[in-house]
Design brief:
By secondary structure, the protein is mainly beta. It contains five helices and 27 strands. Helices cover 14% and strands 39% of the residues. α2 crosses α3. The N terminus is likely disordered.
Length: 440
């Protein structure tokens, strides 16, 4: 468990606003910022969203899913699903009625084949982008699943195949589509380095993962080689707290990087134009929440062992579940419990914020985090939560709170949202619902 340090246990609204201003990077003039205080009292919204269709119930052969690693809508309401099975990625495109449009993707070395691909991203115009770490390139496919072209990762020359760990774009990162600008946003919070021990015969190498710069990059796919430009950064690059982001209209970015309830709106040039705060008192770790978290970790690790396969193997590589549990037991829980557990933006430009549940922590897949960071193993998506979800606008209007709900895995046009759920056998199902107007 990563540590957080806070000097104020119960900040007042004025103190929060002051702290936010001092946290903004020096590149953002304080005079350009507008601090908006959101109301403290919740205004509850309905959570009974109408189901549109579901994929993965086994009725039709094409919808049998193995591990959903990515999911997103295009502007026509088509849902693009990345399904990863036995090391191979396939992409399903499903229309707004839940009918299959196309399924494509196969392992191989040629154009359109996947060498080491785990995720697919739906562009607004109906194309699909697949990040292929084996080819060190983004592959772009048209709405029929035919390959259009490649865009090489930044820093990779044509025909060059350097070791994966030397490519900056292969560092662990989270990518999202900017549905207004058409490209990708990539969040970098960890860095992976390859260390060679020359004292052994023969020399061998190992991968080490450490803290990254905590930045958001805009990835342009217009040319033969992708380009990256920084568009936002955490207030404290060395901090270990959460770092959430989402695209907004006008090339803006919403981000949250503190343990208190603060959402910052980054303008196209990277400056912070508006700061949204909600004066919810911070909660410190105590004996009850520590016990509850440790028991939760124990249950999830035991479940991973019972499941077997890659997850159990990864734990074995690092001493087995006993080692993981011992590290958790020895962890000193300090500082406040973060108030924000997740954040996404909608096609209408709203911001959905998942608050940390009152039990003191969100669902955390510790084994999945390790697999993703150490061996680039994609984790299967599940909707984050449950918890209270606040719906706000970038201008600072509070629209209400959806109680005890999960944060959708994907937002689409006309209020469409998609959730990924797992049954007792870890088989995924994708459920598409429609949220009412006003909170879309």
């Amino acid at each position: 468990m990563r540590k957080s340090i806070c000097t104020q246990t119960s900040p007042t609204p004025a103190k929060i606003a002051l702290a936010v201003i001092t946290l903004v990077p020096a590149t953002s003039p304080a005079t350009a910022q507008q601090v908006v205080e959101l109301p403290l009292e919740d205004r509850l919204l309905g959570a009974d969203f109408t189901e549109v269709y579901r994929i993965g119930d086994g009725v039709r052969d094409w919808e049998l899913l193995t591990r959903v690693t990515s999911i997103g809508f295009d502007a026509q309401g088509n849902l693009h699903i990345g399904d990863w099975s036995s090391g191979d990625l396939s992409v399903l495109v499903v229309d707004p009625r839940g009918e299959l449009v196309v399924r494509f993707g196969q392992p191989g070395e040629g154009p359109g084949d996947f060498r080491d691909a785990t995720h697919a991203f739906a562009l607004p115009d109906g194309r699909t982008v697949v990040s292929d770490n084996g080819h060190l390139a983004y592959q772009l496919f048209d709405p029929t699943g035919a390959l259009e072209r490649w865009a090489r990762y930044p820093g990779v020359a044509q025909g060059e195949t350097p070791p994966l760990m030397y490519v900056r774009s292969a560092d662990p990162r989270l990518r999202k589509v900017d549905r207004w600008e058409g490209g990708l946003l990539a969040q970098v919070i960890t860095a992976r380095t390859f260390v060679v021990d020359s004292s052994t015969s023969p020399p061998h190498g190992s991968i080490k993962v450490g803290p990254g710069p905590r930045i958001v990059l805009r990835v342009s796919l217009d040319g033969d080689q992708a380009s990256e430009d920084q568009v936002a950064e955490a207030s404290d690059p060395g901090a270990a707290g959460g770092f959430f982001f989402g695209a907004l209209p006008g090339a803006r970015v919403a981000l949250s990087d503190t343990t208190v309830y603060v959402v910052k709106i980054a303008e196209p040039g990277g400056s912070i134009g508006r700061v949204l705060v909600r004066p919810i008192p911070a909660r410190e770790w105590d004996a009850r929440t520590e016990r509850a978290f440790k028991e939760y970790v124990r249950e999830t690790l035991e479940a991973a062992v019972a499941e077997g396969g890659d997850r159990a193997q990864l734990m074995g590589m690092f001493g087995g579940p006993e080692t993981w549990l011992r590290q958790i037991e020895e962890t000193e829980f300090e500082g406040p419990i973060p108030l924000i557990a997740g954040m996404e933006t909608t096609w209408e430009g709203k911001i959905w914020i998942l608050r940390t549940p009152t039990r003191g922590f969100a669902d955390i897949d510790l084994v999945g985090v390790g697999m993703r960071a150490l061996v680039s193993e994609p984790t299967g998506l599940t909707a984050e939560g449950p918890g209270s979800i606040d719906v706000i606008t970038p201008e600072g209007e509070y629209l209400g709170t959806i109680p005890d709900s999960r944060l959708p895995n994907a937002f689409g046009p006309d209020g469409l949202v998609a959730y990924v759920t797992l049954d007792d056998f870890e088989v995924p199902t994708v459920v598409v619902r429609r949220v009412p107007e006003g909170i879309r």
